[in-house]
Here is the input.
Amino acid sequence: MYSLFFDDLRVLVTPKSADDYFFGVSTFALVIFAVEILLQCFAFQGYLGNFFFWLDLVATMSMVSDIDWIWTMIDSASTGTGSNAATLAKTARAGRITRVIRIIRLIRIVRIVKIYKQAKLAARLSWEKKQKLLEKQKNEEIQKMRRNAMRERRVSTF
Here is the structure.
């Protein structure tokens, strides 16, 4: 939820002077998401290169456009020193970049849905595992009771 709405809240609610704090928090979140991707590469076999890896990578990299410090460095490197033609080209690309950013935000929503489904599946599997364990314990207890009853019958018949 952070990556979807944080930048919009920054623009709508706070003054321009508070932007540096928001960019700092966004940079921290970007680093945390990148570390998460790295840890998942090591923790889950087959994660690297699969669909969810690329989805997470694109969603994490989309945060770069929300961080002015990084975005300014990328933009100034791509436009060079800047002239009127470069400024005009930059303005023309702004509309396309805005559309791309909207698409990337949609990818973020897909990522959140994926995380929700994984958590739901983990909770269900945990519940099913507990139920199977309880069933197993119950069956073992019933078998013990049957064995004890059989022993008591044998003892009483002699």
The chain has a mean pLDDT of 77. DSSP finds five helices and no strands in the chain. The CA atoms of residues 27 and 51 lie 25 Å apart. Residues 2-130 form one domain.
